Amino acid sequence: MLLLTVTLWALNFTAAKFILTHGFRPLAFSSVRYGLAGLLFTTIVLPRERSLRVGRSDLALVGGGVVLLFANQLCFIYALRFTTATTVALLFGTLPIFTALIASAIGMERLSFRFWIAAAVSFSGVALVALGSHGGLSANLKGDTLAVGGAVTWGAYSVMIASLMRRYSPYRLSAIFLLAVTLPLALFGSTQLASQSFSFGWEVWAWFAYAVIGPLVITNVTWFTAIDRVGPSRASLFANLQPFLAAVVALLVLHESITGTQVAGGLLIGCGILLSPRSRTAAGAGAER
User: I need a surface site. Which of 73, 83, 240, 264 has the fewest CB within 10 A?
Assistant: First the structure.
């Protein structure tokens, strides 16, 4: 289940990049994708949960989570528009580091000296990935910055919903957030939706179907089932494979280029992840992406 989940997540970078390259506008794609995934996942979860209600005292946390997830989607989708899927995947490898930093900032975790070494190694890798974008600091720096922003906002979202997961099942929360974030995506993307042409070939629709069902529906079931069976620490080890597997898939499927500097940066990010202590928050995060 863990390998399936990580593979589905990894393919999402390539799927989204292919869809955007072939005519789907960013916010039109995100809003339709999340809307369909939310409806589909709700039909699966509602018979099990019988309700998607949350307590009034938790509405502020839910609202904050929606804002962070919305920001994450903006960063993710526009990062893919401005730079390669390979680069975005490598930079998303900083997620465990940012999650731990945010958890520490709000007093949820205490960070060791070992962690700060890991963070320094990872951020050195980020610098190399950015510097290696097509041989130097180019226009792709905008995409690189958004990719890092995607990792930061996903880490913050993961930390924010950690307390909610003590009171509600991850399936209920996933259904709620998938549906709730659709509204701001559709609102901000209304102009793109109105002018979007949906006359695509079968390849685009095949990737789109995958982007809805794979990383937003199936993984929400497999990820949390696997965590329940093997524990968050072991699950996080598998999750760390995602950025590298995603980069390899993007290179093979999209025929993207990667520089030696970016490879070195990716390896440094990976070394930082291996050096860092295991974080329960990162493993317990919501799976929708």
Answer: 264
